[in-house]
Amino acid sequence: MTASPFAALVDWGTSNLRIWLVDSQGAVLGERQSPEGMGGLDKAAYPAVLEGHLSALGAPSDLPVVVAGMAGARTGWREAPYVETPAPLVGLFQHAVQPEGVSRPVYILPGVCQREGGAYDVMRGEETQLAGALEQGLDNALFCLPGTHSKWALVEDGQARRFSTVMTGELFNLISRQSILRLSVPEDGDAEADPEIFDAAVAQALEPGFALTSVLFSIRAEGLLAPDAKINPAARLSGLLIGAEIAAIRDDLQRHGKAYLIGTGKLTRLYARAITKAGGEPVMLDGGLLVRRGLLASALSLFDHEFKD
Amino acid sequence: MTASPFAALVDWGTSNLRIWLVDSQGAVLGERQSPEGMGGLDKAAYPAVLEGHLSALGAPSDLPVVVAGMAGARTGWREAPYVETPAPLVGLFQHAVQPEGVSRPVYILPGVCQREGGAYDVMRGEETQLAGALEQGLDNALFCLPGTHSKWALVEDGQARRFSTVMTGELFNLISRQSILRLSVPEDGDAEADPEIFDAAVAQALEPGFALTSVLFSIRAEGLLAPDAKINPAARLSGLLIGAEIAAIRDDLQRHGKAYLIGTGKLTRLYARAITKAGGEPVMLDGGLLVRRGLLASALSLFDHEFKD
Q1: What is the CATH number of the domain that holds B176?
Q2: Is residue B213 part of a domain?
Q3: pLDDT (tens digit, 0 to 9) for every residue of chain A, 309 residues total?
Q4: Contacts of A149 in chain B (CB under 8 A)
Q5: What does the alpha-carbon distance between residue B252 and residue B270 come to, in Å, rounded to a whole number?
Q6: Which residues does chain A have within 8 Å of residue B221's beta carbon, measured at their own beta carbons?
Q7: Do A124 and A176 fall within a single domain?
Q8: Domain check: are B20 and B80 in the same one?
Q9: Same domain assignment for residues A272 and A183
Q10: Which of A92, A257, B148, B245 is 20 to 30 A (C-alpha) from A111?
Q11: Partner-chain residue, chosen from B171, B209, B214, that has the shortest CB–CB distance to A245
């Protein structure tokens, strides 16, 4: 290593762990990834896992560490209680907790929760990506993070104002593989293969009064009644589900115009397509870069803060 | 047997089989039930299953038989092709088919399908219950048949005009047992135990712009964020799903006022509660009686028809 590391930044999710050594400008000096996510770790295992990776990266033994994600869950390393909406994204570091059992300084950042109006919701990790987006000037914006459980988040004046978790990916898997529709949706069904079918399903879901559960069975019945029609049940199911999700945030989308998409791959491309269909403009962001920027911002605040004490 | 049987009436569903021997007035002279539904039978097995039950009932060897339900599916005994909406319910018998391999006259009634406006749908068995309701004067009415897949059917001037299958029961099972919400919904969760929670969820689902998939995760988050609150996740999930289903037919419900509910037990009681909440008036009907009446009406038409030939 030529430059001296300022901190180790860790994105510790349910199924993955990513570590970056960075200098104080955020330049990456070393990087590791591993499947040692929160989902597979006992509380007591965290220090050794972390030290193993830091040692492999040649990190000094007193290098401070900032962690975001599920490591801060109740069932993770040490609970970092949620900060409630509206949550100032630059202030997350103030609520970081320090786990026991490590000799170096380690800070685990909190997640964000929402109780307002009974719209209960939680996030852990995504708030640090939003903090990273803030670093690039996105302090009033609508964000979408596609995934098994996608998140939509509205950031206003640098605060996580409102967000919602939508189980679209999980529902797609359950419905296409385990419901009666499994008889219609092939296992290798490709929702991207027939964009016009996907688009038509999104358009249907965006119609006023659309009722998802009352439309799903038509996918099965169409296969029985029109076996020769050009249908792609995976594209139709995916379009109905993603369309229903976007219908729910359409007011925000119309107000902001742009939706910043944090993700990669096929699913994110389908969301971009559906957002366009709903009259919005999707803008792709790199999630790995964002979480690193958010972690660095917290690290700079934390260690600045420490030095001042 | 004192009276002489006119016909054997058979409701042959996916998982059950019911047979009644009746006189020409519909009086039941004998009755059998069995789990030998279409789902577990090879095509070749039907004649022996039927003859076994008829013999146990002491039916004459030339007694004619009328069958409704999944025995008429492509994967059943012999396909009775669907009659398309608008389907005159008194005319179903005209499309009955006669299977091979039996020495007595056997007629399998058709199901009804819908292609109109791309709202593809199918029913087999329910149309005969609707025909039975016609016999008691319900020739302009809205029907709801709760079940794993519920059906809503609009009968106008004695025709099955429009209907839809809603996968509410199946979705409740998949979501409560297999999605992330399984961590919140106890296996023995009783949706009837907290009527006010069920009602509130129905009311939420009836609000304009309600988006089911964007609300589901709040059930999990509420359990995390308000662990001491009085919540009943089963009641809430059930209310959201049934409410979303009723929201989709609310125009029909407002026009007709009454919704005739064909079913029994807890699920039907929940539908009745939700229909009331939506401003409708639920009226319970006995499904077994209706299918028998519908079968008898077809039997009378068929054998009358035969005699005239």
Answers
A1: 3.30.420.310
A2: yes
A3: 457 899 999 999 999 999 999 999 999 999 999 999 999 999 999 999 999 999 999 999 999 999 999 999 999 999 999 999 999 999 999 999 999 999 999 999 999 999 998 999 999 999 999 999 999 999 999 999 999 999 999 999 999 999 999 999 999 999 999 999 999 999 888 999 999 999 999 999 999 999 999 999 999 999 999 888 788 999 999 999 999 999 999 999 999 999 999 998 999 999 999 999 999 999 999 999 999 999 999 999 998 755 444
A4: 180, 217
A5: 19
A6: 113-114, 120-122, 165
A7: no
A8: yes
A9: yes
A10: A257
A11: B214
Contact between B191 and B200 (Cβ < 8 Å): no
The β-bridge relationship of strands A258-262 and A281-285 is parallel
Contact B120, A218 (CB under 8 A): yes
Contact in structure between A25 and A60 (CB atoms under 8 Å): no
Domain co-membership, B103 together with B176: no
DSSP SS3 for A165: strand
Give yes or no: residues B245 and B292 share one domain.
Answer: no
Q: Is residue A141 part of a domain?
A: no
The CATH number linked to A64 is: 3.30.420.300
Q: Are B169 and B148 in contact (CB under 8 A)?
A: yes
Which DSSP string do the residues of A94-148 spell out, in sequence order?
GG-B--SS-SS-EEE---EEE-GGG--EEESSHHHHHHHHHHTT-SSEEEEE-SS
Same-domain check for residues A47 and A92: yes
B209 in a structural domain: yes
Total domain count, chain B: 2
Q: Which domain holds residue A192?
A: 168-285
Task: Tell me which chain B residues have a C-beta less than 8 angstroms from the C-beta of A217.
Answer: 121, 149, 164-167
Rounded to two decimals, the ipTM of the complex is 0.93
Helices A195-206 and A233-248, axial angle in degrees (round to 10) = 40
Are B244 and A171 an interchain contact pair (Cβ–Cβ within 8 Å)? no
